[in-house]
Amino acid sequence: MQQSNLKEFLKYTTLNITGMIGLSCYILADTFFVSKGLGMTGLAALNLAIPVFSFIHGCGLMLGMGGATWYSIFRGQKAQDQCDRIFTNMLCLTLAIAGLFILASFFLSDELTRILGADAETADMTHTYLKVLLLFSPAFMVNDMMACFVRNDSNPRLPMLSMLFGSLSNIVLDYIFIFPLHLGILGAVLATGAAPLIGITILSTHFLKKQNGFHIKKERPRIKVILSGISLGFSSLVTEVSSGIVIIVFNVIILGIAGNAGVAAYGVIANLSLVVIAIYTGLAQGMQPLVSRSYGEGNKTCIRQYLNYGFVSVLVLSAGIYASLFWFAEPIVKIFNSDGNVLLQEIAVSGMKLYFTAIPFAGINIMLSLFFTATNRVFPAQSISITRGFALIIPAAFFLARLAGMTGIWMAFPITECMVFLLAVIFLIRCLKI
Q1: Distance between CA atoms of 11 and 197, rounded to whole angstroms?
Q2: For 16-40, what is each residue's pLDDT tens digit?
Q3: Are 18 and 160 in contact (CB under 8 A)?
Q4: How far is CA 191 from the centre of its chain?
Q5: Can you give the three-state secondary structure of 341-400, one letter per residue?
Q6: pTM
Q7: 180-222 pLDDT per residue, tens
Q8: Taking a C-beta distance cutoff of 8 angstroms, is the pair 367, 310 a contact?
Q9: d(CA 320, CA 2)
């Protein structure tokens, strides 16, 4: 039994980590090609626009993770009618919210550009990226939602393939649009927007399989069902949106300390952070279907086994990731520093070594937040997400920046994650006692 659970755990988490790394490469590929084709100005403009991507992605994950978690619980309880109902309601809400993003593209893109802090040098590029990104929001959100449901329907391989092929198409199209076609920042966002369309096409093949466990149900959306999905998925939204808010705050603070070179340096670190966090998110999302199914079946032994596997995995991954980032900081930054800016190089290299000391604590916090979501414990999940998302890190950034300049900025992340880790452990001890 234990060997079977370990095999299943490794299958789900490995496939999902691989897929999430591919997904995170959407923006990372933009960062690389924009830095090569448009220099430091393009890199700064891209970093200013990332928070909107985080918000769109967060809404898709909120509905996908919340709905899919309930789906796994209902599936463990053999309640097929409820499985179809939660999928239908989450799909309807996904399309409705995506419609609002499209309206924002037409009527609010100018205001968003100003709010995000673009100056005269970066405004045009930032505005173009935002406007087109919002138009692609239905594709991003539907892709996120479908990936969650398919993964929870005992098919983790298909979401991985959709993310990887989407990421590969993004990289290829980035090169074609930015260099041979000379589309600049427009080419970067068009390549990014094409990726979820390919992902949806691949995920749609799941509906052709006989073992497909969820279907569209002909009924009106139910408020109670929608709220139950949102409540469980809300921590995923907070995690994504808060990352965007933190980027905005950090950009504003850094702009006053080190100018556009500092913002560009933080852009490199922020985008690398997307990949690192995606690895831990992939691990946690891979655990979620297994934990939720065991919770629906009332199998506490399996739940504890999966939790133990999660802790060991986070520690092993953290050791490998930090060692790689520490020893290869110089060449990694050089990849994105196409202009050879000495100040950008110095700021980013020193910042990377401090900033990523947070990763073992961040990994455990992400895993425990989704663990609590998977076992229908809304309060601990949301408390961890809100606390690590913005409640602590934003005040810490302002205070530490005033105290120690750029060093303080880099230390805000590890100090926050360490404090949230202590809170998460308290929640876990109480949970295990119950």
Answers
A1: 26
A2: 888 777 767 666 666 777 777 777 7
A3: yes
A4: 19
A5: CHHHHHHHHHHHHHHHHHHHHHHHHHHHHHHHHHCCCHHHHHHHHHHHHHHCHHHHHHHH
A6: 0.80
A7: 888 888 888 898 888 899 999 999 998 887 777 777 777 777 7
A8: yes
A9: 26
